[in-house]
């Protein structure tokens, strides 16, 4: 595989991946390897959960051909976009009288053409796989990831075309506002009905905030929101699949049920009442966590004790970093309060004088 290995479970004995053939239950795997506690040292950037049903059939040679053909198009479009920017003959604004198109209109036509040509190449080589993108903060990622993974294997998402999911682990230099990316994979992201069906479940049964559907080809090409071509990094935006009212109705139904203490994990969104819009002040990520001490089911006479010790050390270091950040913030806040207290006497003295 080429750069797209980011979209495939690493070969070999990669312990941060769960499949139906794994010798541990999914719940135990999720408890053992939490994205907020697994530090990425360069060897474990993702935690994976696979349902199965991956119908991708392209070969390594196909992937190379996809990369070569689509790269040429991307280079061509990027150069043309740059020329449009610097071409004085193309007006900044369109002119209805002369029929002249604006720079923005000409640019968007080129970008639409590129997207169509990319899809043709994807269908030619059956390189159709892609993913729904979601993001979550470090403090909430463990619960959100566990909810998604469980749904994929034993819940509503198990009845969709989704076959695999992954979540980013924690970088060593992660800041307090770090966001973890979650990807939910489909064999054909150009199948609008399939990605929309999953979208309804992600909204109604999980209350997730969704960031669009991205093709693995775009990942292969390095197309993101900052790419100089300006080509949109996702092939489906939320509004392309559902209108805002329907999206909000599904999320409202989820949160209303959550506030009422009911679980929506096992309920189909097709059976939900889209008019259920009870007021609420809670979110899925704020759902209380049940703490319980579990025996480490991974431990056995054949396990590498040193490996487990290293993992515990990494977890302890991460917790220490979080505590240090919290302490630093409290000190800063305390210093600010102290400065304010010192200013008050000065202001009073100034008024008296």
TrEMBL record:
**Basic and acidic residues bias locations:** 270-288, 311-320, 330-344
Q: Which organism is it from?
A: Lentinula lateritia
Annotated region (Disordered) at 1-23, 85-108, 262-353
Checking InterPro entries in the record gives: Bles03 (IPR015034), TIF_eIF4e-like (IPR023398)
**Record-annotated membrane-spanning stretches:** none
Family, per entry: Belongs to the UPF0696 family.
Ranges annotated as biased composition (Acidic residues)? 299-310
**The protein's name:** Translation initiation factor eIF 4e-like domain-containing protein
């Amino acid at each position: 595989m080429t750069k797209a290995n980011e979209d495939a479970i690493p070969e070999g004995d990669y312990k941060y991946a769960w499949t139906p053939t794994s010798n541990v239950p999914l719940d135990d795997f999720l408890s053992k390897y939490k994205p907020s506690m697994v530090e990425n040292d360069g060897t474990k950037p993702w935690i994976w959960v696979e349902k199965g049903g991956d119908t991708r059939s392209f070969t390594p040679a196909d992937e190379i051909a996809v990369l070569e053909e689509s790269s040429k198009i991307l280079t061509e479009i990027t150069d043309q976009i740059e020329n449009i920017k610097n071409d004085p003959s193309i007006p900044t604004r369109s002119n209805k009288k002369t029929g002249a198109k604006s720079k923005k209109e000409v640019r968007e036509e080129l970008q639409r053409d590129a997207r169509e040509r990319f899809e043709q190449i994807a269908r030619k080589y059956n390189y159709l796989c892609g993913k729904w993108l979601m993001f979550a903060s470090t403090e909430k990622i463990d619960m959100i990831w566990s909810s998604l993974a469980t749904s994929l294997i034993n819940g509503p998402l198990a009845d969709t075309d989704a076959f695999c999911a992954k979540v980013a682990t924690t970088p060593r230099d992660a800041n307090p506002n770090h966001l973890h990316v979650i990807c939910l994979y489909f064999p054909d992201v150009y199948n609008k009905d399939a990605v929309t069906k999953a979208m309804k479940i992600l909204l109604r049964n999980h209350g997730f905030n969704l960031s669009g559907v991205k093709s693995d080809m775009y990942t292969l090409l390095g197309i993101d929101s900052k790419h100089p071509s300006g080509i949109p990094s996702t092939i489906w935006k939320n509004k392309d699949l559902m209108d805002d009212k329907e999206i909000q109705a599904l999320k409202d139904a989820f949160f209303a049920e959550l506030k009422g203490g009911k679980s929506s994990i096992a309920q189909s969104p097709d059976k939900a009442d889209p008019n259920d819009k009870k007021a609420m002040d809670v979110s899925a990520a704020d759902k209380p966590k049940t703490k319980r001490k579990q025996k480490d089911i991974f431990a056995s006479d054949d396990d590498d004790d040193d490996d487990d010790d290293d993992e515990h050390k990494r977890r302890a270091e991460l917790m220490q970093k979080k505590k240090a950040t919290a302490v630093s913030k409290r000190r800063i806040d305390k210093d600010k309060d102290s400065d304010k207290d010192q200013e008050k006497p000065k202001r009073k003295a100034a008024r008296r004088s």
